[in-house]
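Task: sequence design from structure.
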């Protein structure tokens, strides 16, 4: 079983990657998961056209801090020249890897020929992939779905094209574009691609526990796992996987560690976006980080109304005190995070 993995010349200490997630994996979130054992983090998807048109908001999405590195920056688009220029801009902005989005199934993206639409059109996808691989010196990776048909033929073909164009790894989320997030990820598609390729393959989709991660690596032979939704409320999943792979015991975070992670995230969000904007974004995000904790619903609701950084700390500290009392009086031995 892999304990490390490589993408091009980059070597990672554990085979774990945080999935790119629009509206989630910004600088503060990436730092939080990197500090909790994730080997490689990825930006949200960033529009190549937006970068080429000089959109300040889009360019800002590439900003990051040292605590997140190594960092993969994901770009999307269907125009080879713009994708190549965007990749150069991401390399100049400090990316360690460029990831090409061939999986987004959102209508707005697909109708421009980008994202999962690239899995339909081999001629365009090959031009895009070749243009990006030729434009930068850093490794290039390609993230895809199984395609438009459940057989996974589209993915196998695109994975081969990626390898031929010079990509250094592919990530496979084996659901069709039509499925979006419904149904189950079909691991056979990952196994077939792993068999056919010589570059590393990262398996993605429905990994909820460290046990799932080991299982998918065993079943498909994939070189690493990418985790999305499960890490939203449980950034420790990466450390848990690492511990399992190295046969060491993982000590679940106690209340102090959990709240210190959440407060660190609040402070990094404010440093990045400024207080007003950060609070607006955090209203819908902080609740995730209380996942699995008792008596959380009232606190979650309170967090949806924060307007100042101090509001967040006050709610969190009050809740932490309440939980300390709760665990003391109920003598609960129930783990506060999943241990599987
Ligand atoms: C809210 C959300 C945003 C996402 N944004 C992106 C994105 O920007 N780029 C991308 O390639 N995939 C994106 N995805 C897909 C994830 O990267 C991942 O492939 C998918 O969630 C399956 O992994 P999981 O079962 O571990 O969540 C997104 C998924 C979610 C739920």
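Answer:
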């Amino acid at each position: 079983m892999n304990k490390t993995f490589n993408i091009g010349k980059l070597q990672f200490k554990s085979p774990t990657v945080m999935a790119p997630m629009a509206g989630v994996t910004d600088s503060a979130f990436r730092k939080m998961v990197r500090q909790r054992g994730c080997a490689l983090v990825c930006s949200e998807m960033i529009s190549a056209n937006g970068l080429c048109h000089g959109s300040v908001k889009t360019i800002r999405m590439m900003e990051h801090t040292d605590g997140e590195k190594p960092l993969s920056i994901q770009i999307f688009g269907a125009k080879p020249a713009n994708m190549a220029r965007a990749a150069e801009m991401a390399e100049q902005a400090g990316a360690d890897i460029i990831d090409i989005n061939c999986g987004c199934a959102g209508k707005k993206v697909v109708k421009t020929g980008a994202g999962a639409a690239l899995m339909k059109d081999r001629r365009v996808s090959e031009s895009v992939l070749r243009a990006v691989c030729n434009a930068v010196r850093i490794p290039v990776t390609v993230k895809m779905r199984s395609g438009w048909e459940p057989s996974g033929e589209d993915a196998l073909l695109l994975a081969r094209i990626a390898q031929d164009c010079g990509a250094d790894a592919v990530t496979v989320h084996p659901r069709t574009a039509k499925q979006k997030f419904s149904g189950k990820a079909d691991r056979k598609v990952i196994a077939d691609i792993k068999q056919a390729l010589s570059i590393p393959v990262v398996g993605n989709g429905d990994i909820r526990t460290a046990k799932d991660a080991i299982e998918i690596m065993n079943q498909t032979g994939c070189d690493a796992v990418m985790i999305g939704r499960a890490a939203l409320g449980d950034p420790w999943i990466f450390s848990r996987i690492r511990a399992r792979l190295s046969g060491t015991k993982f000590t679940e975070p106690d209340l102090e560690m959990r709240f210190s992670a959440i407060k660190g995230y609040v402070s990094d969000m404010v440093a990045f976006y400024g207080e007003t904007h950060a609070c607006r974004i955090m209203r819908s995000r902080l609740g995730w980080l209380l996942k699995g904790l008792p008596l959380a619903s009232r606190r979650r609701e309170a967090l949806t109304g924060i307007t100042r950084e101090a509001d967040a700390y006050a709610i969190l500290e009050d809740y932490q005190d309440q939980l300390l009392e709760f665990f003391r009086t109920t003598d609960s031995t129930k783990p506060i995070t999943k241990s599987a």
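The two ends are 18 Å apart (CA to CA).
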